[in-house]
Each structure stands twice: as structure tokens, then as C-alpha cells.
From TrEMBL:
It comes from Carlito syrichta. It is found in: Cytoplasm; Nucleus. Residues 27-87 form the AIP/AIPL N-terminal FKBP-type PPIase domain. Keywords: Cytoplasm, Nucleus, Repeat, TPR repeat. Gene3D superfamilies: 3.10.50.40. One of its GO terms (molecular function) is peptidyl-prolyl cis-trans isomerase activity. GO terms for cellular component: cytoplasm; nucleus. This is Aryl-hydrocarbon-interacting protein-like 1. Pfam families: PPIase_AIP.
Length: 92
């Protein structure tokens, strides 16, 4: 696993598990982002809270549309196409 990267956001660390392709996209307001995710507790068992693949379809958000967890925009706009990353976020 790569070393944790800091995203200049307090309480957020990123580890790239699989590098993406190309340059970092220019995510402008109105960009649609489609992605799969897993949310896990930071306990010893890494208990699964949510998994979009178990639900059967990916999540969609529009950049700049005030998504209920605004940290997701920060996380997603730090990623390249097809990148797989793990993020550690302090509780909000």
C-alpha cells in the first residue's frame, strides 16, 4: 500500500490502492461523478456500514450541488479515472 497522502483538508488522509489513468480531471461545477464506494467503521474488524456494489448500482453526484456529505466532493475530485483509493476521515 502507498503512503497516506494529505489532501490539505484537516482530518482526511488518502491512500491510493490502484492508480487511475490520465491526468486529474477538471471537475467543474455541474460535473457528474459516478462511483462505487464502501463505508467502513474504523474498528478492528473494519465493519461494513454501506457498500454500493451490494446495493447493485453506483452512486451519482453532481459537483457543486451541495451533496449532504460535502467531504465526498473533496475526496472524489482528488481522484483520476479508474483510480481506487482508501480515505480515512475523522468523524463529522
Amino acid at each position: 500500500m502507498d503512503a497516506a497522502l494529505l489532501l490539505n483538508v484537516e482530518g482526511v488522509k488518502k491512500t491510493i490502492l490502484h492508480g487511475g489513468t490520465g491526468e486529474l480531471p477538471n471537475f467543474i461545477t455541474g460535473s457528474r461523478v459516478i462511483f462505487h464506494f464502501r463505508t467502513m467503521k474504523c474498528d478492528a474488524e473494519r465493519t461494513m456500514i454501506d457498500d454500493s456494489k451490494q446495493v447493485g448500482y453506483p452512486m451519482h453526484i453532481i459537483i457543486g450541488n451541495m451533496f449532504k456529505l460535502e467531504v465526498w466532493e473533496i475526496l472524489l475530485t482528488s481522484m483520476r479515472v479508474h483510480e481506487v483509493a482508501e480515505f480515512w476521515c475523522d468523524s463529522i
